[in-house]
From TrEMBL:
Upper taxonomic lineage: Eukaryota, Viridiplantae, Streptophyta, Embryophyta, Tracheophyta
Taxonomic superkingdom: Eukaryota
Family annotation (SMART domains): CRA, CTLH, LisH
Protein name: Protein GID8 homolog isoform X2
Residue ranges occupied by any CTLH domain in the UniProt entry: 77-134
Length: 242
């Protein structure tokens, strides 16, 4: 990202100056922006990386045709991956596990933590709909053996089973396990595992670049007044407060 490198360059040049803040005008800042050359191909790859990682298969296909940027993976696998993620998000964990195994049984075999978390999510869904006896049986047969082999698994299992001790489970000390955020967390974990299995980054590069931009601006704020981006959704430069 050109702006990040400009900011880092300004930091290096300001280090040797006095402690008073340097004022960088909008004209000077925009000239520096124009001096930085970024290949269109690199920007296209950044966009495609985001579309593929986040699962926007139709957009990725259209972008491939329009820009000539290859996604690096079979776009059909994105549809399969999103089907798994959606199943977990809607609480259909058994279906999600079957879909993962259809993609590649080694994904869960090589990742016991992910397998446990998916099974834990199945247990949570049973508790959610009030199937107490089935939940206890499932916990004993599927999760307890894994807990004996891993202390952290055992602790997570105990927290989950503890939900059964409360009549108002949503307001009990472990009620957050029933929140939608727990489903999203598990869905994100399985999504990352599938991406890794497909030799693709588990996280898109664009958010990391934006974090770098924010960090660089925070560093430069201490040393200079300059036009900066305060709203990432619009990316508009705002004049420095002098």
């Amino acid at each position: 990202m050109s702006l990040s490198w400009i900011i880092l360059g300004q930091l290096d040049s300001i280090e040797a100056m006095s402690t008073s803040k340097k004022v960088i005008t909008r004209d000077e800042w925009e000239r520096k922006l124009k001096d930085v050359k970024i290949r269109k191909e690199d920007m296209n790859k950044l966009v495609m990386n985001f579309l593929v990682t986040e699962g926007f298969v139709e957009a990725a296909e259209k972008f491939r045709i329009e820009s000539g940027t290859e996604p690096g993976i079979d776009l059909g696998t994105i549809t399969d991956r999103m089907a798994v993620k959606k199943a977990v998000q809607f609480g259909n964990v058994k279906d999600a596990i079957e879909k993962v195994n259809d993609l590649n049984p080694m994904i869960l075999y090589a990742n016991p933590q992910l397998h446990f978390h998916l099974q834990q999510q199945r247990l949570i869904e049973l508790i959610r709909i009030g199937k107490v006896e089935e939940a206890l049986e499932f916990a004993q047969e599927e999760l307890a053996p894994r807990g004996k082999e891993n202390q952290s698994f055992l602790e997570e299992l105990e927290r989950t089973v503890a939900l059964l001790a409360f009549e108002d489970v949503k307001n009990c000390p472990y009620g957050e396990l029933l929140d939608v955020s727990q489903r999203l967390k598990t869905a994100s974990e399985v999504n990352a595992a599938i991406l890794a299995n497909q030799s693709h980054e588990k996280d898109p590069k664009l958010p990391s670049l934006l974090k770098m931009l924010i960090w660089a601006q925070n560093q430069l704020d201490e040393k200079a007044a300059y036009p900066q981006i305060n709203n990432l959704s619009t990316a508009m430069l705002e004049d420095p407060a002098i």
